[in-house]
Amino acid sequence: MKFCDECGALLVPRKEKGNKKVILVCRKCGHKVTPDSSEISDYVIASDLNHVTREKIEVVKEKTRRTKRVTDEDREAFEDFFEDDSGVESY
Q1: Half-sphere CA count of 36, side-chain side, radius 13 A
Q2: CA dihedral in degrees (22, 27, 30, 32; nearest 10)?
Q3: HEC states along 48-82?
Q4: Residues 44-69: pLDDT tens digits?
Q5: b/e per residue 48-71 (b: at least 16 CB within 10 A)
Q6: Torsion angle of C-alpha atoms 30, 42, 22, 25, degrees rounded to 10
Q7: Cα dihedral: 22, 28, 30, 32 (round 10)
Q8: Contact 12, 21 (CB under 8 A)
């Protein structure tokens, strides 16, 4: 394992696009390092994941509202239940 000289983050192996050469790249700052020939065998990219377009998060378009409202009778019952013994209501 190698760490970035600039920010100290972990260097991750990546393949260069043009020549398929493995380089070490810092995910935090983007610093690139070419590993020694003896270190290249230590860094192996196992597989790349291909995501399907169906693997998405479902989005609900309509906004739901509460249908049940507190009635005046319920409100009065709540106030009576939570009223202090002193007779003074607290909110």
Answers
A1: 4
A2: -30
A3: CCCCCCCCCCCCCCCCCCCCCCCCHHHHHHHHHHC
A4: 667 777 777 667 777 777 777 766 78
A5: eeeeeeeeeeeeeeeeeeeeeeee
A6: 0
A7: -40
A8: no
- What are the φ/ψ torsions at residue 11 (nearest 5 degrees)? -90, 135
Structure-model confidence comparison of residues 16 and 91, the more confident one = 16
pLDDT grade, residue 88 (50/70/90)? low
**CA 58 – CA 78 distance, rounded (Å):** 39
